Amino acid sequence: MRLPTHVTLKEVGPRDGLQNEATHIATADKVQLVNLLSQTGLSYIEVTSFVHPKWIPQLADAVEVLQEIKRHKDITYAALVPNMHGLERALQADVDEVNVFMSASESHNQNNINKTIDATFPILEEVVIGAKAANKTVRGYISTVIGCPYEGYIEPEKVLYVTDKLLAMGVDEISLGDTIGVAVPTQVERLLETLLKRYPAEHFAMHFHDTRGTALANIMQSMEMGITKFDSALGGLGGCPYAKGASGNVATEDLLYLLDGMDIHTGIDLQKMLEAAQFIEQIVGKALPSKQMAILRNEKEETTS
Amino acid sequence: MRLPTHVTLKEVGPRDGLQNEATHIATADKVQLVNLLSQTGLSYIEVTSFVHPKWIPQLADAVEVLQEIKRHKDITYAALVPNMHGLERALQADVDEVNVFMSASESHNQNNINKTIDATFPILEEVVIGAKAANKTVRGYISTVIGCPYEGYIEPEKVLYVTDKLLAMGVDEISLGDTIGVAVPTQVERLLETLLKRYPAEHFAMHFHDTRGTALANIMQSMEMGITKFDSALGGLGGCPYAKGASGNVATEDLLYLLDGMDIHTGIDLQKMLEAAQFIEQIVGKALPSKQMAILRNEKEETTS
């Protein structure tokens, strides 16, 4: 097995996790969550989203959260930005990185963004140009890279098509999302074979949801093909609000257990990550789906009984 | 990626799953469960255990269950057998295969079986000889092949030591158990490298628990090294009653999702497996941990709300 010695985890819990929570979460709790995450050793936190509050009311306090968190100089604090209005607010809040997004699947893109794929590119390009002018790096999310809730399996060529456009407009990194968590390793292999024929692995991060339990297997496959950047959410928070049946992102602490066990360096402290997860679990008021959190709960029960 | 075209799943839910259930389960429900499993396309079901009811009261009705199930000629109905007294009862109940067990870790073996590893071999050998005399095949479980709750990491040489002895006494197949669900793929690789230097892959099945979410990744690694037999339990039932923090076996339906998605043939019908899992979930009276069952519950909620 050929595996990397170092891997970068990009924490998306505060955004991709909390945007799907039914519970109202106070701005102060979001700030506290990001501050706890900043102490774990993470180098990247996606803090919030500038999608219009009409669509994601959960993150309507995006500016406040970004202004109130305590920033560490070695951490990139990013946010999702859908358009020029969002970019204006994001720059006002001094985000470090601007994250644009669209889908590889035509119908998912239309359901999620209300535009065709080709009509989405100019919107994103405007944002990319604006972000670059403000000296920000840009990350591009591509959703439904393997399966779509409306179209089923997505051919790698469709992902390549969107990748080509995003990289050509100056996006620095592409995050490839298995939005509804349907991927199996052979599909990941096929997708990455297609993309890595044209671009180096450094251009890509993988973003797996663990809806069907395949996320860690898919991450293993990705690492064996040279990918060293992975999105994850503490506790296994999250999912896509527009994709039926989509459950959480792969849990940061479960991924850390895997990587630590294989001596793959992340710089992140598992215990501190679990403390942050315990904090947010208390706030959202329900058991989070990660395996590490289940183990903690079992140990507590054993201690108290 | 080099993967097998066919894989055999050995269903251990009725034994390894139910032996850990706190709920009393009626004999008729156990019989019904095995009958439902017999209709899924499985070729192997571990039905029960002849460990003394003092230790596993949950399976005290082993003889009755084996006598009352409706047997299919293409299915092997197996049971756990600890000693000659257990073998007598197992043969009386006409099991198809006799499954002996011990640990690779000295302290786990002593905690579980009350004997040293070396003192366990003669007990098992007597059972193996008796089973062979009755024309039964024999499966040998080795527990804690990667991690032990008392000793931590277990060196592959310790597993090889027990493997050598079991195969020498005539055991037909070894099931290698990550009893407490701590394994990561590099450890699986290291273990199998050691064993496969001496024995062909056909001698081994892998038995993973999903306590830390790594089971499917470990199964991928095992398949890439030529292993084609895996133990699993519907619903993700199970665990080891003597190992602290041990949660369920890898769920049969989650493993089926992975294998089906990669066109690896098992002969098992996922829908029928889910029906069996729904049946036993109702009986045990709590949500089973498998991802496929969570998806089913979500779909039901969406339909009824």
What's the SSE blueprint?
The structure is a homodimer of 305-residue chains.
Chain A: E1 8-11, H1 13-17, H2 27-38, E2 44-49, H3 62-68, E3 76-80, H4 84-92, E4 97-103, H5 106-113, H6 117-133, E5 137-143, E6 147-148, E7 152-153, H7 156-168, E8 173-178, H8 185-198, E9 204-208, H9 215-224, E10 229-232, H10 252-261, H11 270-284, H12 291-304
Parallel strand pairs in A: 1-10, 2-3, 3-4, 4-5, 5-8, 8-9, 9-10
Antiparallel strand pairs in A: 6-7
Helix pairs in contact in A: 2-3, 2-11, 7-8, 8-9
Domain Pyruvate carboxyltransferase (chains A, B): 7-274
GO molecular function (chains A, B): lyase activity
Organism (chains A, B): Lysinibacillus piscis
Radius of gyration of chain A: 18 Å
- The number of helical segments of chain A is 12
The number of strands of chain A is 10
Order of helices and strands of chain A: EHHEHEHEHHEEEHEHEHEHHH
Largest interface, and how many residues on either side? A-B, 36 and 36 residues
Main sheet of chain A, how many strands, which sense, barrel?
A: 8 strands, parallel
Instruction: Determine the oligomeric state from the structure.
Output: homodimer
Mean pLDDT of chain A: 94
For the largest beta sheet of chain A, what order do the strands appear in spatially? 1-10-9-8-5-4-3-2
CATH fold descriptor of chain A:
TIM Barrel
Instruction: Give the N-terminus to C-terminus distance of chain A in angstroms.
Output: 43 Å
Q: Any guess at the CATH architecture of chain A? A: Alpha-Beta Barrel
Helix content of chain A: 40-55%
Number of individual domains of chain A: 1
Amount of beta strand of chain A: 15-25%
